[in-house]
């Protein structure tokens, strides 16, 4: 156990050199030179450990251990190599390192697998350089389209296509069918929440990834003089927005887990001390693991807002600009993960993911499930991101046992 802990940490530190920020943390943006260096380093490590390596057209990196009996059935594990700006050392890359360690150790102990084992280092997941997320897994599954990124550029104005070409990659052939050989995908990732820490558990077996709906709410009242307009004559956009926000959040609290609702952005116009505000804008982020519940709750809050707008005499505009369904994980893979945790006395719980992951893209095409390890204080996307060596090792162990069952058992 001790050496899995120290080795995981050593490899996490090693990979963190590529894009390490002077004050701690990692910045490894898609197709940057830090990104290229990390993929090259992983490629070399895989080769040294006896994996056959290759990139796909867009720059996902794979390391393969060919199966002896079913070479055309691939059991895949891995995560994304890119990070947010000044992110932590675990988000994404821990899942790649853990998959590498697990497959390498299985090969050392049991030799060639019956089914092919493949580790993937996805090119991109975070959307932190370009306004596009899941570029890696969306290409592997054939979802990403060339036209999605033709017009986009990074914060320095570098077009996506130019950055990709400079890194040595190109668009995939969209007429080609996605790979038929992948029979299972297991992603190990940090929780980025504090549920496991609160419950004192090492591992989360993720049964579903939440669906999300995001809205921008615009309220138009009437801007007026703050001194000469009596309260009864006002169409105060902030008063209406404040009432709506209070009602929505109270309703969300009463609704209970796993529903979460956030008003994260608030703007007022003209945003001046002595003017009754004529306009207010706020955002809503609503998530739930059950599609029907998500629809029901959004319906309820829409009615609340419409009622409040009518009684406040303001105009209301509700714009839903994101509507993603919850993604359930595969029951057969979940059974494997649960059974292996139970058999090896790894303390775990079944839970949902409140954040998005490559697994939600993979799950639509391939039997998929996820494992989580705890994040201290739930902190992520931040240099303070931390998972204890014991938990990191428990995650690697759980993944190793699961991959053994999937790739070595008849
Ligand atoms: Zn991640």
From TrEMBL:
GO molecular function terms listed in the Swiss-Prot or TrEMBL record: allantoate deiminase activity
InterPro entries assigned: Amidase_Cbmase (IPR010158), Bact_exopeptidase_dim_dom (IPR036264), Peptidase_M20 (IPR002933), Peptidase_M20_dimer (IPR011650)
Lineage: Bacteria, Bacillati, Bacillota, Bacilli, Bacillales
Class of the enzyme per the UniProt entry, highest EC level: hydrolase
The protein's name: Allantoate deiminase
Family classification: Belongs to the peptidase M20 family.
Domain (Peptidase M20 dimerisation): residue spans on this chain: 211-309
CDD domains according to UniProt: M20_bAS
Pfam family, one: M20_dimer
E.C. no: 3.5.3.9
Gene of this entry: allC
Keyword Transport attached: no
Keywords: Hydrolase
NCBIfam families: hydantase, PRK09290.1-1, PRK09290.1-5
């Amino acid at each position: 156990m001790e050496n899995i802990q120290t080795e995981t940490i050593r490899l996490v530190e090693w990979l963190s050199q590529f894009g390490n920020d002077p004050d701690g943390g990692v910045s490894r943006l898609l197709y940057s030179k830090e990104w290229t260096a990390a993929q090259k380093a992983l490629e070399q490590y895989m080769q040294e450990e006896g994996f056959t390596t290759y990139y796909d057209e867009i720059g996902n990196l794979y390391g393969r251990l060919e199966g002896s009996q079913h070479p055309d059935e691939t059991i895949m594990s891995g995560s994304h190599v890119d990070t947010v700006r000044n992110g932590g050392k675990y988000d994404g890359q821990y899942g790649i390192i853990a998959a590498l360690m697990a497959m390498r150790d299985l090969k050392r102990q049991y030799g060639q697998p019956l089914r092919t084992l493949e580790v993937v280092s996805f090119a991109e997941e975070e959307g932190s350089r370009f306004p596009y997320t899941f570029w890696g897994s969306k290409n592997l599954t054939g979802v990403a389209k060339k036209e999605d990124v033709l017009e986009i550029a990074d914060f320095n104005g570098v077009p996506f296509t130019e950055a990709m070409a400079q890194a040595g990659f190109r668009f995939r052939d969209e007429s080609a069918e996605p790979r038929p050989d992948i029979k299972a995908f297991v992603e190990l990732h940090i929780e980025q929440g504090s549920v496991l820490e609160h419950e004192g558990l090492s591992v989360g077996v993720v049964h579903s990834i939440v669906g999300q709906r995001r809205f921008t709410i615009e309220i138009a009242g009437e801007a007026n003089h703050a001194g000469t307009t009596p309260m009864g004559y006002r169409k105060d956009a902030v008063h209406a927005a404040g009432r709506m926000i209070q009602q929505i959040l109270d309703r969300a609290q009463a609704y209970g887990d796993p529903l979460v609702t956030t008003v994260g952005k608030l703007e007022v116009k003209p945003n001046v001390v002595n003017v009754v505000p004529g306009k207010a804008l706020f955002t809503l982020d609503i998530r739930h693991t059950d599609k029907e519940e998500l629809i029901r709750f959004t319906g309820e809050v829409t009615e609340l807002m419409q009622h409040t707008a009518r009684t406040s005499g303001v105009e209301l505009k509700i714009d839903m600009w994101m509507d993603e369904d919850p993604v359930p994980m595969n029951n057969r893979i979940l059974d494997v993960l649960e059974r292996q945790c139970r058999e090896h006395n790894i303390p775990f719980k079944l839970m949902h993911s409140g954040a998005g992951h490559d697994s939600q893209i993979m799950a639509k095409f391939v039997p998929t499930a996820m494992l989580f390890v705890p994040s201290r204080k739930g902190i992520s996307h931040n240099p303070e991101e931390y998972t204890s060596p014991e938990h990191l090792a428990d995650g690697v162990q759980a993944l190793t046992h699961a991959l053994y069952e999937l790739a070595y058992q008849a």
